[in-house]
Specification:
- It is a single chain.
- This protein is mostly helical.
- The chain folds into 2 domains: 27-87 and 341-509, no CATH class; 88-334, no CATH class.
- It is 74% helix and 0% strand.
- The protein has 25 helices and no strands.
- Helix 9 crosses helix 23 (444-456), helix 21 runs antiparallel to helix 22 (415-434) and helix 22 packs antiparallel against helix 25.
- It starts with a helix and ends in a 32-residue tail after the last helix.
Length: 519
C-alpha cells in the first residue's frame, strides 16, 4: 500500500509539473498553418512528388504540435497514427480497384465497349460528344480516369484529325469523360475513399447521385455538339478503322512502356474482340445494385474478365494473375497506399491542432441554414483541392474536417438524414477533387492529361490550360452540384438534402457528436 501511494504521489507530481499547452494568439495561429503552407509550396511550386512532400509535411506538423502542446514526439504523432488507422479498409478496396482496372483494359472488356459505342462512325461535329460519352462509359467500367484517358485520347484525337474536328475540344471532351468514372463508378478508388471517410456505403452513394451524374453527362454532350456546330466543324463521316491506322506506331510503343494495359487495349480496339467481353461490367454493376460487399463485386469483375478473356483468347491465367492483378496491387502499393498513409497522418496532426477551425467557423458564420453550410463545405473541398493539387490528398485531409463541421453545427436527429449528409459530403469531396481539378492548371490531372495528349498526338503541344478552357463537363458538374447543394434542390427526392435541420446557435459551444452517431 505504501509503495502504491508513493507511486500515486509521483504521478500526481508529474501531472502538476507537466506544462499546459501554449495559449492561442496571433503567433500560434500563424504557426499552425506553416506545415500546410510548406506542403503547398513543395507540391505546387517545387513540383515535389506527394510521396516525398507528405512525410516532410507530417514531420513538420509534428514539430509544431510539440511546440504548441508542449508534448514529446511520441505524443505528437499519435493523432497522425490514429487518423491512418481509420482508412486501412480503403487500402484493400484500392488494391482491388487497381487490379480490376488492369483486367478490364487488358482482357478486352474496355475494347469491346469502345467498338460497340463507335460502330456507327462520326463527323467533326459529333466526335467530341461521342468521345465524351465513350470515355465516360470506359472510365465508369474501369473506375480509373488516368487509364480511360490514356486509352481514349489517341483514338479520338486521331479520329478528330481525320473527320475535321477541333483537337482542343476533343481532348477536353476526353478529359471530362475520363473523370466520370472516378466520380461515379462503383469501382472507383476515389468514390470508395470518400465514402469510407464519411461512413457511408459505396452502393448507397452511387445510387443516390447516378441520375444527376447522367444528366450532367447528357447536357455536356449537347453543349459539346453545339460548340462544334458553332465552330463550323466538318460534317464528313469517318470511321474507327481509319482512325486506328493513322495512330503512329511510336505512340503505341510509348504507351506500352508507360501504360501497358492501355497499349493492349488500343491493339484490341484495332483488331476487334468479341462483344460478350462487356459482360464483366454488368456483373459488377448488378452485384453492386444488390448491395453486395464492394470487395466481392470487384473480385467478381476480375474473375469474370479472366473466364471470358480465356474463352476469347485475350488473356490467360498466368498473365491475368502476374501481369494484371499483381500489377494493379503493385501500382496501388508503390505509391497510392503509402502516399495516403502519410497524407492521413499529416491531416490527423493538423486537425488535432485545430488548424482548420478558423475555416470551419467562417463557413458556419456565412451560413444562414443547413443547405448553405453544406454548400460552403463544397467550396472548402474545392479550395483544399486547389491547395493540395491532388484529389486523394484533399479527400484524406479535408473529409474529417467537413464531417466535423456538419456534426458540430447541425442538429441532426434522424439517422436517415445523417446518411444523406454523409453521402453529399462524399459526393462534394470527389466532385470538387476530380472535376474541380480540371479547373486548376497546376493540379496533377490536367498536367497528366496534357502530357499524355501531347505524347499520343504530336501534331499539337497541349498545355494544362488547353484541358481547362473547353472542359464543359467539369463546369456543368461542379456548378450544378454547388447550386443544388446551396439551394437544397434535387432532381429527385432521394437526392435532395434534408429539410428543417436547424443550425446550432453557437457552434463553438455545441457538444461533440457521440461516436455511435457519427457517420
Amino acid at each position: 500500500m505504501a509503495k502504491e501511494s508513493l507511486k500515486d504521489q509521483e504521478k500526481n507530481t508529474e501531472k502538476k509539473m507537466a506544462k499546459e499547452p501554449r495559449k492561442d494568439n496571433t503567433f500560434t495561429a500563424i504557426l499552425k498553418f506553416v506545415p500546410l503552407v510548406a506542403f503547398i509550396v513543395m507540391v505546387v511550386v517545387f513540383r515535389l512528388d506527394l510521396l516525398a512532400a507528405a512525410p516532410i509535411a507530417a514531420f513538420l506538423a509534428a514539430c509544431v504540435y510539440m511546440f504548441l502542446k508542449r508534448a514529446n514526439f511520441t505524443e505528437s504523432i499519435k493523432p497522425g497514427v490514429k487518423a491512418a488507422r481509420k482508412i486501412v479498409m480503403i487500402f484493400f478496396i484500392l488494391m482491388f480497384t487497381y487490379g480490376l482496372a488492369e483486367c478490364f483494359m487488358a482482357a478486352g472488356v474496355g475494347a469491346a465497349l469502345i467498338r460497340i459505342c463507335m460502330a456507327g462512325g462520326m463527323t467533326g461535329r459529333s466526335v467530341a460528344p461521342v468521345a465524351l460519352f465513350v470515355t465516360a462509359l470506359l472510365s465508369f467500367s474501369i473506375g480509373s480516369s488516368w487509364g480511360a484517358f490514356a486509352a481514349s485520347a489517341p483514338i479520338f484525337l486521331w479520329l478528330s484529325y481525320i473527320v475535321g474536328g477541333d483537337p482542343v475540344l476533343t481532348v477536353c471532351a476526353v478529359a471530362g469523360g475520363a473523370c466520370f468514372g472516378d466520380n461515379t463508378s462503383f469501382i472507383s478508388g476515389n468514390v470508395a475513399l470518400a465514402s469510407e471517410l464519411q461512413g457511408v456505403s459505396v452502393q448507397a452513394r452511387v445510387r443516390n447521385h447516378m441520375l444527376w451524374a447522367i444528366l450532367c453527362l447528357a447536357i455536356s454532350m449537347v453543349v459539346f455538339y453545339f460548340v462544334g456546330l458553332g465552330l463550323g466543324l466538318s460534317n464528313v463521316r469517318g470511321d474507327l478503322s481509319t482512325a486506328m491506322t493513322k495512330i503512329p506506331e511510336e505512340v503505341v510503343d510509348n504507351l506500352a512502356v508507360t501504360r501497358p494495359s492501355a497499349a493492349k487495349l488500343l491493339t484490341q480496339v484495332r483488331d476487334g474482340v468479341p462483344v460478350y467481353l462487356v459482360l464483366p461490367i454488368f456483373v459488377v454493376i448488378v452485384m453492386s445494385l444488390f448491395k453486395m460487399n464492394t470487395l466481392l463485386c470487384l473480385g467478381a469483375g476480375m474473375v469474370s474478365s479472366l473466364l471470358l478473356g480465356t474463352i476469347a483468347g485475350t488473356v490467360g491465367f498466368n498473365e491475368w494473375l502476374n501481369d494484371l492483378i499483381l500489377k494493379g496491387y503493385s501500382d496501388a502499393g508503390n505509391w497510392t497506399v503509402i502516399m495516403m498513409l502519410w497524407i492521413a497522418a499529416f491531416g490527423g496532426i493538423m486537425d488535432a491542432m485545430g488548424v482548420f477551425d478558423p475555416l470551419a467557423k467562417l463557413a458556419v458564420k456565412a451560413s444562414r441554414n443547413s443547405n448553405m453550410l453544406m454548400g460552403w463545405c463544397g467550396v472548402l473541398a474545392f479550395i483544399g483541392n486547389m491547395a493540395l493539387a491532388d484529389e486523394s490528398a484533399q479527400a484524406v485531409t479535408l473529409s474529417p474536417v467537413l464531417r466535423d463541421i456538419v456534426n458540430d453545427n447541425l442538429e441532426i436527429r434522424d439517422p436517415a438524414d445523417r446518411e444523406k449528409y454523409g453521402i453529399r459530403l462524399s459526393l462534394l469531396t470527389t466532385t470538387m477533387g476530380v472535376y474541380g481539378s480540371e479547373m486548376v492548371p497546376w493540379h496533377c490531372y490536367p498536367v497528366f492529361f496534357a502530357s499524355i495528349a501531347t505524347a499520343v498526338y504530336p501534331l499539337m503541344a497541349f498545355t494544362p490550360y488547353d484541358i481547362i478552357q473547353r472542359n464543359y463537363m467539369s463546369f456543368i458538374t461542379v456548378g450544378s452540384l454547388l447550386f443544388l447543394t446551396f439551394t437544397g434542390l434535387g432532381i429527385r427526392k432521394a437526392f435532395r438534402l434534408p429539410k428543417n435541420v436547424p443550425l446550432r446557435k453557437k457552434a463553438e459551444n455545441a457538444p461533440a457528436p457521440s461516436e455511435e452517431n457519427a457517420p
